Each structure stands twice: as structure tokens, then as C-alpha cells.
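The pair is quoted verbatim underneath.

:::
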Amino acid sequence: MGMNKWAGLMLGCAACVIVGLVTSSGVSQPSAGTVGGGRAAATIDVVRIFSDTAQIKDLNEHMRQKTEDYAAELKQRSESLNAKKLELQAFKPGTPDYDQRRKELLKMNAEAMAWSKATEEDLDLQKFDWTVEIYKLAIESAGKVAKDRGFDVVLQRTEFKPAELQDRNVQTLRSMIQSRVVIHAIPEVDITDDVIRTMDQHYKSKPIMKAPTPTPATTPPATSPKN
């Protein structure tokens, strides 16, 4: 699964409204609801949360390295299997040497398939788990910012960009329209930048993900044919 697909998964998981439900009682400054005719609700761009935060950038690099490691080892395993198939051709079917190498080839193939499936599932699970954790942190950070600025509710704002639809039909367009929570909001109620800064400060104070050095892939040695 590529990074673009992961980004799509992340944004899909974040398709709900963020409701802070925090009040500004005890704050000496005027509440947002008394400014500019009443601004009790703020907006946040979740797309930017999953693209501009420091942790996301580290995670993208981490998953890119993981994916490259997976592709490199998959290539090596495929090359080893092809070499084993060529080696098998050097023996006559029905002979003990042929049967032995055929069993070895079947075992290598089964191991490669099991490894590939397990690795892909592990990558998908990591992406899922980190999407959940980052979205939870976004909710918490949005609540803190909303409280500091006197907002009661934080709503998800998404840009209306029908030109970017890959599947250009009316059903897809209607789904895009129906998924939008905020139809209009003035820039002053957008707290995305403040939320990103809050998340970055939390991450820098306690980093929970750094891009590790990739582990070199290992490939079992090929067996030479015996005449």
C-alpha cells in the first residue's frame, strides 16, 4: 500500500465532526460568542492535520522506509524462487534429486507467500493504529485551543473541490457535498494553525515516533544442483 493510499485511509478515518464541547467559564477575556455577532463554533482543516504536523512527516518517512524494505526483500525472495525453479530444471522429473528440490521449492514459495501476507497486514495495522492515535491527539489539541480561544464547538471544514474528483458522476459529487460539515466560515474562526502548533509542541516534548534505520533484508542461499 503506497503513501497516497495511507493518506486516503487517514482522511477517511477523520471524516467525522470534532466536537470540543468546552466552555470558557472562568476566563477573564470575552468569550468568542460575544465577538463579531457571536462565534461559538470554530473550524479545523483535518486534511492539513494529516499532512502538516511534525509527527505525520516522521511517520510518512518511517512508513516509506518500511515499504521500501518490504519491496526490496520481496524482490530478493522472488529472485531466489526463480533461481530455485531454474535449478529444478537441471534434474530429471521422478528422480530423488528432483523430488527433493521440488519440495524445497514448494516450501520456499509457501514461506514467501506467508511472509508477504504477514508483512502487508503489519504495515496496514501500523497505519491504522497511528491514524487513531494522531486523530485522538488532534481532538485533544482542538479542545485545548478551543478553550483558550473561547469556542464551544469545533467543526471539520473541508474545501469543496469537485474538479479533483476522479470518479466524475453525480453520485460521487453528492457524497462529497453530504460529507461537508461546514458550508461557510470566516477565516477568523479557523484554528487549524493553532492545533498544529499544539500537536507539534506535544510531539517535540515527547516524540513517540522517529524514522528508524531500515533493517537489511536477508535472503536464504540457493542450493547448488547435485548430479
